[in-house]
Design brief:
heterotrimer; A alpha+beta; B alpha+beta; C alpha+beta; A: Uridine Diphospho-n-acetylenolpyruvylglucosamine Reductase, domain 3; 3 domains; five-stranded antiparallel β-sheet; 10 helices; globular; C: Aldehyde Oxidoreductase, domain 4; 18 helices
Chain lengths: 340, 166, 766
């Protein structure tokens, strides 16, 4: 299977990128690791005439850590680097862990942090070649008028299945975006529209150039759990990241972000749950897990049963929060555990 | 979805790929993958296409000692890197310890996954000469095999840990 | 040599990437072929307009059904089940993906563009995808029913197999316990790593050269000869390594015909390689089945009788469904003594892609049904599962309902040894009592019993081999055997090596080439080691006889006083008297007017039978020998999440004797892996005739992280003998079934949940 014909550019500066974009208009896509884009091109889901690679930009693979400023990961940093970089492992082990769960060894060597955050939403009926698509009517995500997963639906249910975004979100991550006119920083969760067909708020000409995570605070407990059917390769059928600040047994700050169960990551702030300043107890944990469960509404458009995925959200939240109870395991910094 | 007419020929470039310690000059289009070049232009058919979409690992090659998928690597982006294919593991016909171990342990049946599998294992052992069984399994999570159940593959790799790195 | 763990002789070429598979074949001027497929599950073809496509620069030829002489082909071709498939659809399509046209062009881009430019006008017809719906009188007719002995007014029946013996009603009337259940084995698929691929080149001498990823070159040649109307001698199917098949590459595929015809039209080599999504969606997946099983037992658990109804969804054409329903009868009656049996199997057409055999071909599903029920019976009668099986298992020498003998069946030993090695009964009981404990991770142990046949009669019905001695004493083996990954060439080389007392390094194997190697039954009928192996043995024996005869004259002793070792022939009672092979060979040539030493061998299973067993009523001899195995699975079930982990498998198997234990272990490992996948996560999801998870990402075959720990117990019941053909029993397909059943039984032992459907979807508490 060949990639359709296109022209490749590897500009060395943002200035050149934007001038190229100006000439090509909507016929251009950014190319990072290629593990999402090139597959969809082979399937002819998208046919950009021009690929603008980000790899040539100076500093696009930088990682910088500063105790006061936190972590800066440029968009082109490979996932494998996030896994093994000592600075990430030491200060944000949950990020290193989440990155290690993405796809396969080979893909982690190719795929980038920016690309993983901006991976397109997925669905059984969408991520198919255009030949396969001849046997079905075009759905919303394929510029059609229906959804094959949910009969009579008026919207697209394609799923956001990124592993990094929920973790970055609960850690308070912000992304830097550059456009021809300006640059800005937005919270990770603000990147998403919540719409399966057009999942991103900032499309070309906006370019995600990097991610910044605040310095880790002392009593921060953070963790990520991923549900998939096999112990490798697969996207999350459901995933939850949590970040929890405890003062003794009292919850001071809490954020939880779901992935794999909606068209975007679903950030749930502790302030919206009423659990701040409460003691972390088993009944409270069950309440939080219930909140997460109620926010998740997966449908049967992936290769796992939707109600099971929803149940797993509840179970994963319970398991992670239990481990956060002081004295439960003696740990507080996010666990390195295999997936369920 | 708009389809572009693919009839017009795209521009070609002469690039140099450094493969198995040799320089190869090839003419490529922008969209040619490293796998296309290896198999179709250089007749290095050890790297296989079993899916083309990054899900099977049969096209695994090493780029600067790291395992990557040739089917999703653009050939022009592979310029300037040190590429190792299965054909490069046995210079002068002397099999690497891993290749030898695969043969001796019965880790090869149909052989289609074998080049990718051996290269993934080679990369693993280079970075981690004494991996645990779990680490081996995790490193190979992207290399599918339907014949062996992976048992003898893992045993073969375990047999060359620490003492001989390829 | 026999019984030795010899590394495969094709190991080095595969470990270095030198081995050429069909996908690697490149010929000068080669064109790229692509296939246009039906987007509809059921429709009349009103018109195909290829005119625009032909005008595209770079398109060299386009063919449709009208180019194909209307010759049909099929997996079986008998009077009862005539061939029913066209190589390219003629006036009707019956499944999404059915081949409608094929294009040969200078490259993939142009070929794909040509496909888009072909216009096909369809008139859509109502379609049916569920097998029971398809049987209803008002179902759309996919094919007319032509089964004269069909009793019920079912529609869309592609095949029926019925076999009744004993007093079934009487057995049920006097039963102490009757269990009746419905079991479902859903759709799984092969996942061979090498895609379906063919290269065809019709040369100017009128020879069609073909390389194809298949399971038997002679069978492919036969199909191509018939559909292309070319005589066999003008078709040369070349040797290519095969990247896995597992039953999915046996019969004729449209793309094989199309590449051949396109090459004939263009005079250039043509290559077709299927995309992975194409394979998952439109090629042959396995045979899904619904099984209604009723078993009557006495107070001690002895089976008195069984009633079995198998319903198989064979897809839009007959395919191998009719074989599958015959085999299921066999897999019921083989392991346990059944005095009375009422068996009926139906193969039902639906508008789904045609199905194919997949490793086990019915055995996994039927054994899952029987073994699940056996465990349930054991529990109800308070007999332990091992004891129950021992009471019913066939003994050595028992005669089967079809008249075959199980000969040296080692089933009893398999059960005993598997149970002993795993401390089965005690572990089973312990797990059972721990079901109610609070730890949500439960452990379970389960047992399954299965049996398999070793070759039968289906074209080609015979294997032949030639053993040629080279002047220097090295040996050439010519065999039509196809190595699809199982190690056929190594096994056959070992047999020759055994006869001549040499190492496999002294033997060169030339295999699977219809122009230069003799006929072979192929690697899809579970008979290669037995049938081809014995043909090879005979050829080696004949060559050795000639060699020893010349040597006896050279050394002035009787041939029976001679033995061989390391390419020398020596006198047994005075080993210093010896000559190298080369000398005896030279003498032979001298004394026989130039005749080199060539040994000729041949073998056929069921030598007294004219044909194989009847697919209609299972009458007749089936196989020369039957393999038995017992497998025990240890699982861990997380009852909170529903995750099932197959931790360990113990396989006690009677394969006669292993010619190469290393290769046998490899077969066991692969089959346990397939079964573990099928028990837990493997399912081809279809919606209205379309596969919706057609990728390695979404079809969950096991990864390295799902590896199962395996133990092997060899139960040796036969031996390799000189001067007589040997009895091995198959190892390539039979070890999927018992372990699959064992896993389901183990899940029950762990949790009390008994599944009737595969894969197992463990229910969580609300």
């Amino acid at each position: 299977m060949h990639i359709p014909q296109c022209t490749y550019h590897a500009p060395k500066s943002l200035k050149t990128i934007f001038s190229l974009l100006k000439s090509f208009g909507t016929g251009a896509s950014f190319l990072a690791g290629g593990t999402d884009l090139l597959v969809r091109m082979k399937q002819r889901l998208i046919l950009p005439e021009h690929l603008i690679a980000i790899r040539g930009i100076k500093g696009i693979e930088n990682i910088r850590y500063d105790r006061s400023k936190g972590l800066y990961v440029a968009a082109g940093v490979k996932l494998a680097t996030l896994v093994t970089d000592p600075v990430v492992q030491e200060n944000y082990p949950v990020l290193s862990y989440a990155a290690s769960l993405v796809a396969t060894t080979q893909i982690r060597n190719m795929a980038t942090a920016g690309g993983n955050i901006l991976q397109n939403t997925r669905c059984m009926y969408y991520n198919r070649s255009y030949q396969w698509g001849k046997a079905v009517s075009a759905c919303f995500k394929r510029n059609g008028h229906l959804c094959h997963a949910v009969e009579k639906s008026r919207k697209c249910f394609a799923v956001y299945q990124g592993d990094l975004a929920p973790v970055l979100s609960v850690l308070g991550g912000v992304v830097t975006l550059a456009s021809p006119e300006t640059t800005k920083e937005v919270n990770v969760e603000e990147l998403f529209t919540g719409d399966g067909a057009m999942p991103f708020q900032y499309t070309t000409p906006w370019l995600l150039t990097g991610i910044r995570i605040p310095p880790p605070s002392k009593n921060l407990f953070s963790a990520y759990k991923k549900y998939r059917l096999r112990n490798g390769m697969d996207f999350p059928l459901a995933g939850v990241a949590i970040a929890l600040k405890l003062d003794g047994e009292i919850i001071k700050n809490f954020r939880m972000c779901l992935t794999g169960v909606a068209s975007s990551p679903l950030l749930i702030q502790g302030s919206d749950t009423g659990i701040h300043d409460k003691n972390i107890t088993l009944p409270l944990i069950r309440e939080v897990a219930d909140i997460a469960y109620r926010q998740a509404h997966p449908v049967n458009n992936l290769e796992g049963d939707a109600s099971r995925r929803r149940t797993m959200i509840r179970l994963m939240v319970e398991d992670m929060l239990r481990e956060a109870i002081p004295g439960y395991r003696g740990q507080g910094r996010g666990e390195r555990k295999e997936t369920i | 979805m708009k389809k572009k007419r693919q009839g017009s020929r795209m521009k070609k470039y002469l690039i140099t790929l450094h493969i198995n310690n040799e320089d190869y000059e090839v003419t490529v289009e922008d969209r040619d993958t490293l796998l296309d070049v290896l198999r179709e232009k250089l007749h290095l058919t050890g790297a296989k296409e079993a899916c083309g979409t990054g899900e099977c690992g049969a096209c695994t090659v090493l780029v600067d000692d790291r395992a990557v998928l040739a089917c999703l690597t653009l050939a022009i982006e592979a310029e300037g890197k040190a590429i190792t294919t299965i054909e490069g593991l046995a210079p002068q016909g002397i099999l690497s310890p891993l290749q030898q171990a695969f043969i001796e342990h019965g880790a090869i049946q149909c052989g289609f996954c074998t080049p990718g599998m051996i290269l993934s294992a080679t990369a693993l052992l280079k970075a981690n000469p004494a991996p645990s069984r779990q680490e081996i399994q995790k490193a190979l999570e992207g290399n599918l095999c339907r014949c062996t159940g992976y048992n003898k593959i893992v045993e073969a790799i375990e047999s060359v840990t620490v003492k001989d790195t390829p | 040599m026999i019984g030795k763990r010899i590394p495969r002789i094709d190991g080095p070429v595969k470990a270095t990437g030198e081995a050429k598979y069909t996908v690697d074949i490149q010929l000068p001027g080669m064109l790229c072929a692509k296939i246009l497929r039906s987007p509809l599950p059921h429709a009349h073809i009103l018109n195909i307009d290829i005119s625009k496509a032909l005008k595209i620069r770079g398109v060299k030829a386009i063919i449709t059904g009208t180019d194909a002489w209307g010759i049909k082909h099929g997996f079986v071709e008998t009077p009862r089940y005539p061939a029913d498939q066209f190589v390219l659809a003629n006036d009707r399509v019956r499944y999404i993906g059915e081949e409608v046209a094929a294009v040969a062009a200078i490259d993939e881009d142009v070929a794909l563009e040509a496909l888009d430019a072909i216009r096909v006008d369809y008139e859509e017809l109502p379609a049916v995808f569920d097998l029971f719906e398809a049987m209803k009188p008002d179902a759309p007719e996919i094919h007319p029913v032509e089964i004269p002995d069909l009793k019920e007014p079912y529609k869309n029946i592609g095949g029926q197999c019925e076999n009744v013996f004993g007093d079934v009603d009487g057995a049920f009337a006097k039963a102490f316990l009757v269990k009746k259940d419905r079991y479902e084995g859903t759709l799984r698929t092969h996942c061979y790593l090498e895609p379906q691929a063919t290269v065809a080149h019709y040369d100017s001498g009128g020879t069609l050269h073909v390389w194809t990823s298949g399971m038997g070159v002679f069978r492919k040649r036969m199909h191509l000869s018939r559909t292309l109307k070319i005589p066999a001698n003008n078709i040369h199917v070349h040797k290519a390594w095969v990247g896995g098949a597992f039953g999915g590459k046996i019969d004729l595929f449209s793309h094989e015909f199309c590449t051949s015809l396109l090459s004939m039209r263009t005079g250039r080599p043509v290559k077709f390689v299927a995309e992975r999504e194409e394979i998952f969606s439109y090629y042959r997946n396995s045979q899904p089945m619904v099984i209604d099983l009723e078993t009557a037992v006495d107070r001690d658990g002895h089976i008195l009788g069984q009633r079995v109804r198998c319903y198989n969804d064979c897809g839009a054409y007959r395919g191998s469904g009719v074989v599958c329903i015959f085999l299921c009868w066999g897999f019921v009656m083989l392991p346990y003594r059944i005095p009375a049996l009422d068996y009926r199997g139906y193969s039902v057409y639906t508008n789904n892609p045609v199905r194919a055999p997949q490793r086990g071909h019915g055995a996994p599903k039927i054994r899952f049904a029987v073994e699940s029920q056996m465990d349930a019976i054991a529990e109800e009668l308070s007999i332990d599962p091992v004891e129950l099986r021992l009471r019913n298992a066939r003994h050595r020498g028992e005669i089967l309902p079809n008249g075959d003998s199980v000969k040296n069946a080692g089933l009893i030993e398999c059960i005993q040894m598997a149970a002993a090695r795993t401390n089965f009964v005690a572990t089973y009981k312990k797990n059972h009592t721990q079901q109610s404990e609070s730890d949500h991770i439960k452990r379970g142990i389960g047992m399954g019993v299965s049996a398999y046949f070793t070759g039968t009669l289906i074209y080609p019905n015979n294997s032949a081999a030639l053993v040629q001695l080279n002047d220097d004493g090295t040996i050439h083996l010519l065999t039509g055997a196809q190595d699809i990954g199982q190690g056929a060439e190594t096994i056959l080389a070992q047999i020759v090596a055994e006869e001549f007392g040499v190492s496999v390094d002294d033997i060169q194997v030339a295999a699977a080439d219809t122009e230069t190697t003799p006929v072979d039954i192929g690697s899809w009928i579970s008979g290669l080691t037995y049938v081809t192996g014995n043909a090879v043995k005979k050829a080696a024996e004949e060559a050795k006889k000639l060699l020893l005869h010349s040597a006896s004259r050279e050394l002035n002793v009787k041939p029976e006083d001679l033995d061989v070792k390391s390419r020398t022939i020596y006198v047994k009672h005075d080993p210093h008297q010896s000559i190298p092979f080369a000398r005896a060979i030279a003498r032979h040539i001298r004394e026989h007017g130039g005749d080199p030493i060539i040994g000729r061998g041949f073998f056929r299973g069921l030598k007294d039978a004219a044909i194989g067993p009847s697919l209609k009523n299972a009458k007749g001899s089936w196989s020369d020998s039957y393999a038995f195995d017992v497998q025990v699975a240890e699982v861990e079930v997380d009852t909170r999440t529903g995750h099932i982990r197959v931790v360990k498998a113990v396989t006690a198997h009677d394969c006669g004797f292993p010619i190469n234990p290393l290769l046998v272990e490899g077969q066991i490992d692969g089959q346990v892996s397939m079964a573990a996948g099928q028990a837990t996560n493997e399912i081809v999801r279809m919606k209205h005739g379309l596969t919706v998870n057609p990728s390695f990402l979404e079809y969950k075959m096991p990864l390295a992280t799902e590896m199962v720990e395996n133990e092997y117990i060899d139960v040796v019941t036969e031996e390799y003998t000189k001067d007589h053909h040997f009895h091995t029993k198959e190892v390539g397909e039979g070890y999927v079934s018992a372990i699959l059943a064992a896993i389901a039984n183990a899940v029950y032992n762990a949790t009390g949940y008994r599944t009737k459907v595969l894969p197992i979807h463990f229910p969580l508490e609300k």
